[in-house]
Amino acid sequence: MVRIYLPSDKARQSWSNEIYTIEKVFKPQKSYSVYEYKLKQFPERFKEEELLKVDGNPQNTIMNVEKWSISKLIKPVIEDNVIKYEVKWKNHRKTTLEPRDVLLQDVPKIRNKKTGDKSWRFHKK
Q1: Distance between CA 12 and CA 34 in Å, rounded?
Q2: Which structural domain, as residue segments, surrounds residue 103?
Q3: Do 84 and 97 form a contact (C-beta atoms < 8 A)?
Q4: How many Cβ atoms sit within 10 Å of the Cβ of residue 85?
Q5: pTM greater than 0.85
Q6: Does residue 60 sit within a domain?
Q7: How far is CA 28 from CA 2, 3, 23, 77, 87, in A?
């Protein structure tokens, strides 16, 4: 099992989140050539320096975290004595109620935009 090298502009090496299985190993035809590896999901071959070996069940699995971006804050709401905001998310139709404290922690830039606005009226649910 291996990860694929992903070139980047940064100085550090970065490897793919996915883990792939080597399908076939190609021995060098000439003495100055290198081994090449064929992965199941790719038609091209990879050289050894382009792959990172992963032993057994990898403990350092990389989770893909789904990122959500706020389109806009619809309105403030007080629910169970907790200040919440109805949030419209980019690329999603439904809105959600998010606690004010969580929004301030996750999105600090939001503090000056909407939460300081005195004209907002709170709605009780």
Answers
A1: 24
A2: 70-124
A3: yes
A4: 24
A5: no
A6: no
A7: 20, 22, 16, 68, 58
